[in-house]
Design brief:
This protein is an alpha+beta fold. The chain folds into three domains: 1-198, Double Stranded RNA Binding Domain (2-Layer Sandwich); 311-364, Double Stranded RNA Binding Domain; 393-506, Double Stranded RNA Binding Domain. The strands form 15 sheets. Strands 1-2-3 form a three-stranded antiparallel sheet, with no helix packed on it. The longest helix has 18 residues, at 494-511. The chain is elongated, with a radius of gyration of 34 Å. GO terms for molecular function: DNA-binding transcription factor activity, RNA polymerase II-specific; RNA polymerase II cis-regulatory region sequence-specific DNA binding; zinc ion binding. It is found in: Nucleus. Belongs to the krueppel C2H2-type zinc-finger protein family. Residues 108-131, 145-172, 173-200, 201-228, 229-256, 257-284, 285-312, 313-340, 341-368, 369-396, 397-424, 425-452, 453-481, 482-509 form the C2H2-type domain.
Length: 515
């Protein structure tokens, strides 16, 4: 194809491209306006419609400057917004129109080779390959500006300059409302919408509003079902590249984000931010219903559901509803039997990552949570909280059927099976049914013969933890926690105490007999 290459008076190369056909004018005109909307100094840009004769004869002239654009504005990899001029109402409508055109299958066509693209940005990038004599280092992926700290490379010096703020910790952009500082101006702009509350980008499918056009783009993928980013190790697919990047840390085990106060490392920056509230104790989000404060807006959002009673996430298999989608996802493993989290030391698999973390403390012996009353140590905070009720005597969980009170909600749940008679957990080996999953697990050991609980003193093994505890009291500690209130005699087993109490009742009955 003859591109009509020439040199103008400024020493820059120029070439002419054939104008597209009349039927393509409408879409091309739209694309052209998006390209030119931010530049008021483009004398060659004309917005009026072309007639059929004009369209067949007119050519469009482009001027190509042979220089490297060092003033290119930096866009942080972690921020989908980039650093752009203040958003106007006209630009908002144009961005929404662009998204809607893509959704309806409208394509952006290259006027040189007729190649089609779904995204306007991809078309712009492609058109650079047709510009003769241009340094294509940026479009071909060459990155000449390298960070001396971490080795990351950038296509322009301005990108590198912005990146360096990560290492220096400098945050020159400060919010005039709350004083919070940011390293990038684009981050400050994104933050400002928190104060204005404006959400100008609306989804045409469900009407949901978003602060940023990038957020709307990601949301639209939930309607289209498109997940273009696939993990090469496990083939799990994601709608966003950032989600894939987050997922990859599961395989690599990398934890690059370290807390400066306690040294704990995290795979994600968001996890580190969540952890930092432990040290600073900040809780800026307060519930208007009960006054309870939360460190994060999302935590407050979930808490409010406890007041409204709304449980929007329902299981399609059993109908059980949940406050959070993550809770539903966890619940679904009961039906699927999936256990993706495996212990690297003993191979035991778990349906939840939290269960694996708790299990790992068996191998490490870590018990960081200590009771302030008696000094007993526990591996988890929940275990310590449950233990504390033995000191306070508090029993906040009451059965609505018989009025019996329990210190733990799990104990109440177990008790309720007596009233309902429900036994949803069935043994696959013998068909015996149980009201609780824990009872089924204990029963299953009778089939496998497994005895995972071993005595550290004599190495005797037991199928159940309760049996090990009883063994420890009888054989190694001589502990007798069960005491008779009549005579004060103590026993190591509650069954022995129960039998002993009958001797008192028998004596009383004998005393009542006539002599």
């Amino acid at each position: 194809m003859d591109l009509g290459l020439s040199v103008n008076s400024d020493g820059n190369e120029a070439f002419q491209l054939p104008t597209p056909k009349v039927e393509d004018i409408k879409v091309e005109q739209y694309d052209h306006m998006i390209t030119c909307q931010d530049d008021e100094e483009k004398p060659l840009c004309k917005t009026e419609s072309l007639g059929s004769n004009e369209a067949s004869q007119t050519t469009v002239k482009f001027e190509v400057k042979l220089e490297d654009d060092e003033d290119e504005e930096y866009q942080d990899d972690d921020s989908p917004q980039g650093d752009h001029p203040p958003v106007t109402q006209q630009k908002i409508h144009e961005q929404n129109d662009e998204l809607n055109l893509q959704l309806k299958g409208r394509l952006h066509n290259c006027t040189v080779c007729r190649k089609s693209f779904t995204a306007l940005t991809e078309l712009k990038k492609h058109q650079q390959t047709h510009t003769l004599g241009v340094d294509l280092s940026q479009s071909t992926g060459k990155r000449r500006h390298k960070c001396v700290h971490c080795g990351k490379a950038f296509s322009s010096s301005s990108h590198l300059k912005s990146h360096m703020l990560i290492h220096t910790g400098e945050k020159p952009h400060e919010c005039t409302h709350c004083g919070k500082a940011f390293s990038q101006n684009s981050h400050l702009k994104s933050h400002m919408v928190i104060h204005t509350g404006e959400k100008p980008h609306k989804c045409v499918h469900c009407g949901k509003d978003f602060l940023h056009v990038a957020s709307l783009k990601y949301h639209i993928l939930t309607h289209t079902g498109d997940r273009p980013h696939k993990c090469v190790q496990c083939e799990k697919a994601f709608s966003q590249s950032s989600h894939l990047k987050t997922h990859m840390t599961i395989h690599t085990g990398e934890k690059p984000h370290t807390c400066t106060q306690c040294g704990k490392a995290f795979s994600q920056r968001s996890d580190l931010k969540s952890h930092m509230v432990i040290h600073n104790g900040e809780k800026p989000h307060t519930c208007v219903h009960c006054g309870k404060a939360f460190p994060y807006r999302i935590s407050l959002k979930y808490h409010i559901l406890t007041h409204t009673g709304d449980r929007p996430h329902k299981c399609v298999q059993c109908g059980k509803a949940f406050l959070l989608s993550s809770h539903l996802k966890t619940h679904m493993t009961i039906h699927t039997g999936e256990k993706p989290h495996t212990c690297t030391q003993c191979g035991k698999a778990f349906s939840r990552s939290s269960h694996l973390k708790t299990h790992m403390k068996i191998h490490t012996g870590e018990k960081p949570h200590i009771c302030s009353q008696c000094g007993k140590a526990f591996s988890t905070m929940s275990s310590l909280k449950s233990h504390m009720l033995t000191h306070t005597g508090e029993k906040p969980h009451t059965c609505v059927q018989c009025g019996r009170a329990f210190s733990l909600h799990s104990n109440l749940k177990s008790h309720m099976a007596i009233h309902t008679g429900e036994k949803p957990h069935t043994c696959v080996q013998c068909g015996r049914a149980f009201s609780l999953l824990s009872h089924l697990k204990s029963h299953f050991l009778t089939h496998t013969g497994e005895k995972p609980h071993k005595c550290v003193d004599c190495e005797r093994a037991f199928a159940h933890l309760s049996a090990l505890k009883l063994h420890m009291r009888k054989q190694h500690t001589d502990e007798k926690p069960y005491k008779c209130i009549e005579c004060g005699e103590a026993f190591s087993k509650i069954s022995d105490l129960s039998f002993h109490i009958t001797t008192h009742t028998q004596r009383l009955n004998c005393a009542d007999l006539p002599t």
